[in-house]
């Protein structure tokens, strides 16, 4: 049962990483731009925090680091 088509297929490809990585980074930029329009500092900083996390996740996806890529065995 371990030789199924699903378990043997390639799980990630470069175009998939590029589209999803840049998409999430674009989401972060969009959130940051709208965060500048917030009237209160708490709202502005919270939106900048969410935008930073989204940018970090997009960058991790582009660089294929763990948890998106394989964990390196040292």
SSE layout:
Blueprint: H1 5-8, H2 14-35, H3 41-63
Helix pairs in contact: 2-3
InterPro entries: DMAC1-like_dom
Transmembrane segments: 12-33, 45-63
Keywords: Membrane, Transmembrane, Transmembrane helix
Task: Note poorly predicted spans.
Answer: none
Strand content: under 5%
- Which outline best applies? elongated
Query: What is the distance, rounded to the nearest whole angstrom, between the alpha carbons of the first and last residues?
Result: 30 Å
From the helix content, strand content and strand pairing, which structural class follows?
mainly alpha
**Helix and strand run:** HHH
Query: Mean of residue pLDDT?
Result: 85
* Overall radius of gyration: 17 Å
Number of strands: 0
Helix content: 55-70%
């Amino acid at each position: 049962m371990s030789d199924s088509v699903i378990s043997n297929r390639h799980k990630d490809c470069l175009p998939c990483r590029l589209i999803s990585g840049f998409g999430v980074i674009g989401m972060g930029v969009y959130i940051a731009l709208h965060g500048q329009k917030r009237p209160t500092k708490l709202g502005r900083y919270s939106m900048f925090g969410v935008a930073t996390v989204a940018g970090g996740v997009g960058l991790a996806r582009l660089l294929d680091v763990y948890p998106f890529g394989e964990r390196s065995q040292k």
